[in-house]
Amino acid sequence: MEKNKKISCFLAYSSSETMASLMAQLPMGKGEIVDQVFFLAAQSVAIEGIPEHAKVLQGTGLIASDMMLLMAKSTEADYVLFYMKSSPLTLGYHALERMIQAAEQTGAAMVYADHYSVEDGKTQKHPVIDYQLGSIRDDFDFGSVVLLNGKMLRKYAEERQSEHYKYAGWYDLRLFLSRQGSIFHLNEYLYTEEEDDLRASGEKQFDYVNPRNREVQIEMEQAATRHLAAIGALVDTQRYAQPDFTKGDFPVEASVIIPVYNREKTVKDAVVSALSQVTDFPFNVIVVDNHSTDKTTEILNSLATDDRLVHLMPSRTDLGIGGCWNYAINDEHCGRFAVQLDSDDLYSSEHTLQTIVNAFHEQKAAMIVGSYRMCDFDLNTLPPGLISHSEWTENNGCNNALRINGLGAPRAFFTPLARQVQFPNTSYGEDYAMGLAFSRSFRIGRIYDELYLCRRWGGNSDAVLSLERLNANNTYKDQLRTMELLARKQQNDSVEKGLYDFFHKQLNQWKEVQTRFEELANVQTREVGSALAQYNPARMVSTGAKIDKASLAKRPCFLCAKNRPSVQIGLPFHHDFDILVNPFPILPVHFTIPACKHQAQSIAANYGQVHRLLSLYPHLMVFYNGPKCGASAPDHLHFQAGTSGILPIQKHWKALWRTSKPLLTLDNNDGIYAIEDYICPALAIVSHDEEHDTQLFQTIYKALPLKEDETEPMMNIVSWRDEERFISVVFPRQKHRPACYSAEGEAQYLVSPGSLDMGGLLILPRQTDFERMTGERAEAILQEVSLSKEAMDKVVKNISLANQKAEPEVSVGIVSAEKLHFQLNNEYTLDGQEVIGEQLVEYSQGKIRWKGAYYEELLFTPKSADSSFTLADVTIGVNFHWERKEAQTFLGQLHLIIDEGKIVAINKLPVERYLASVISSEMSATSSLELLKAHAVISRSWLLAQIEKRKDIANNRKSATSAMIETPEELVRWFDREDHKLFDVCADDHCQRYQGITKATSPHVEEAIKATRGQVLMVGNEICDARFSKCCGGVTEEYQYCWENLSKSYLLSVADKAPLGTTPSIDLTNETHAREWILSSPEAFCNTHDMAVLSQVLNNYDQETHDFYRWKVDFRQTELAELIRKKTGIDFGAIIDLQPLERGKSGRVSRLKIVGTKYSRVIGKELEIRRTLSETHLYSSAFVVERSHIENGVPQHFQFIGAGWGHGVGLCQIGAAVMGEKGYKYDTILHHYYKNATIEALYIRCRE
Question: Which terminal Cβ of the chain has fewer Cβ within 10 Å, N or C?
Fold first, then answer.
């Protein structure tokens, strides 16, 4: 080893004794290898006792991003030693020298070693395993001492610049290092550390599904996804194939598969659990008895009287669990779907199998994964309880699966595909391997309700594992991940190869275009200042194109399929676009990507296509020319793409990025940056996912000026991939062409800047212009067509203002009582003091008594974002039939105040977290993503409108309105949410059902909330009071017919069908028309009986109602008269008639006259009518009444025939669900139901 190699040591801050001990072991001084020692501590730690010659670095945390960057910036040494524990460490003899020697000889980016571990006072060997491509799980055991290549660490800091991972900084760094070089395992015991986590392996392995670790896991997923993108192994779920469940003949619809070996204690329970399933389809139970030597076979024989049990005994003796699965699924008895049940375990209910098979059809998935509860043999719950794997998300679960060690249970497979893939013949990881393989090409559906009981007992193989067994398991799963990563890389490579195969096929068929591409090799280019000029006479077609309306009207659109040359072929992209070879190329590979449908060039609703193109083809550069910014076909939506890395802005990107100015930043360093050292004004979007990318672009879009005669702000866009980053540079424009374009004589330069020109490659079709072009002239041309400095300053200001709008908080009233018990599950602060654990507060002497002292109020503030508290005896379902008390857990602040002799517990938290809980409680996990996005927007709108309303009333800007008008002859009353004075909303159904994190948040909901972050419905400066109901009945209602007499411009009546947002063609306020319409069943989105759609909106109880679009209710005279007497408190006598006096635009009755033999009275509005005419609530007030069996003028029978379910105002949930299934996007759904409203982002960035 070379003696001049230096090492800087970065060690976790600890006690003064431990730090002194570490310093004493390090070879420092003249001629020694250690040049510097740093102790790392969190910023909140008070530093003392630092040894001499050592320094301190303080950051967010030991493994946070800022600490990794501090390490890199603090050393120029060849190597860096990183010790990640604060406990004592003993280095082996010449351990550092040996690690450096290994690094030098292997050129590794990182070296780690085996070590000794002190556990409960005993020292034992702790070998670790070799790192491989698939070792990307975040809990990989390197030990606590690693040696990093200093140059590669500094490269990380240079490329990352300013990461802000709180938990995933170290993980992100080591993934980066794995891309730069090898991570080398030195199979020698080089140090001794103290083990501080003595939990059994069976408990540790579920850390990643613990809700308390959710914030950690979100960051880890982000880092892992970036890594997969960087190595080309990211799965694009947009390309998923859909299984065809109609193919094949099967003896039964489903088979429960139970592999078993020597489980005499449990197998009968498992088989009986399977045979006890209640389904509407035939099923069987296939038990593969793998040569059991105990009484298992005998027990199975005793159950053979049930002909649904198929008992298979393989002739082979070399089968593992995976082999037994293959034996079952390939057997002739196997059904269309193969569903797992381990021989130790049980199904949670008799409906599990039905639920799983339904999920296949509802979610159109090739594999289903459920949720299970850990329990002992007596079915007592064991930590961590329910394992729902809610870390799974629709778009990224398949990628995140490579980071974690399991997917959940029970697993179920579409049998034809399972037969194609086949299980590995092992008894560990075989199901995980299948999940990875399926998720590469097919959707995996999820069920987040408990389906399965996983029984842990002494005979289980994975209850407590030895280190050797654990290492063997992890090595095998890492190997599975390695194979899967390589398969995904091949799959992605084949997609790109398919693009280039298509490109060459087109050139071979279209010789004229092939010649133009070949001639590009001889096209002249030269530097003009910091730009390039290209002489390309073939581009005269585009440069000289006339794009005025008259010229466009005269020529057929050359991008429409019907007008293309017969020799031109297309490659479909995402169903809505075709990829075409550009017949007049600028780039060595050049594509035009037009929409299949003829529509105007417009970027606002189509920017996401740029991200999707780069996801699918990461080696391309994609660009967009605005209608008057270089687009030669402004009448037909299109993008272009081609060879990446040629444009000067790409070549100089690293330098430009270093000097850029951040204007708005989100998670993951995503944001908008002003590019300040470029030849013309430019804004860059840096992102890692489509949601952030589109969100940031919309911010720029709204910030740009819009000319009166234009349909969108003038702009060009150039986008490309930089490893895992997506870069989009937006060039704001003010002119289509420079003055020199139309000048005469020598003053004329025929240049019409498009995206490539703005990116620094000026396309000049005339040689004289090419030869005369100078750097100054090029810069002047681009500056002239760009926004002026003054206009650009306004754009930057607008973006900065958007960044200042932080996410608001909501205060939620949870419970009130004279005495409250609660548990602070993590550290909270109260007046600067840390508090944790069980607490009791009591109302006493007009104040809150806590720990012997008296307070007016108490405010417990969490120390971290994932800190939670649990309140005992929270009442839910107040005044509903399901009312009960339960303990509930919440994130955020806990505020205790006094009101009317009780203590009120109020939870304060960010709006987005509140919505995740609310929508998960109210919507099905199977709901379509577009429906959930729409619901996220309207729930957010409704909530923020209520918050504003409370503020206005509190500040006397608005008065609370009366909700009742009563005279002897009439009672008109409407019901709305209760206006709360002490908090914004309550936690119960009277406002919106909120249960904190007591129940797992649906990942599907989280995805919808993230995609619509901050978005609300607006009319002018007013947040829309967005209403919704289950089923409008074919036409939506208007606000004033259900609540106060106030018409809202965004809650107008619309027909629930295409064309969207149209006024009803029938006047349903007219009694004759209303009767005819209600008695018919007109076409509408919400006129459906598709249970897959209905299950997205209706809970299990509501699904028992089959007739809601049109319904009937019958009453005998005595029943109706008694019901009305009970509900109103008035004895009307016998009911003679029910006369609609006023109907709304949907036909709903808003004023109804009840005529009795003793009394008559008018009632309204719609909910008062519905409550009066039903024990609970009549489906809707859109009804007609048929009277029959009239005796002495008194009807003896009444039949109500009605339309719809609920008040019908705003969004129709069933209609919206159908629209989502038909492919409508969430913004289209919202604009259909909320006419005149716009969707705007009130805030983007998270709360600090």
Answer: C
